Amino acid sequence: MSTQEGPYDAIVFDLDGTLFRGRTAIPGAVDAVNEIRKAVRCHFLSNNGERRGERLTERLRGLGFAVEAREVISSADLVLGHLAGQQCSYRVLALTSSDLALALQEQGHRMVQDDTAEVVIVGVDRALTRDRMVQGLRAVLNGAVLIGTNEDPTYPAEDGLRPAAGAYVGFFRGMGFEPAHLCGKPNSWAILHALSLWGIDDASRCLLIGDNLRTDIAGAANIGADSALVLTGVSSAIDVEAAHAPPTAILESVAELNPARLEEIAAASGSPGGAQPAGLRNGGSRGTA
Question: Does the 88-182 domain belong in CATH 3.90.230.10?
Answer without folding.
Answer: no
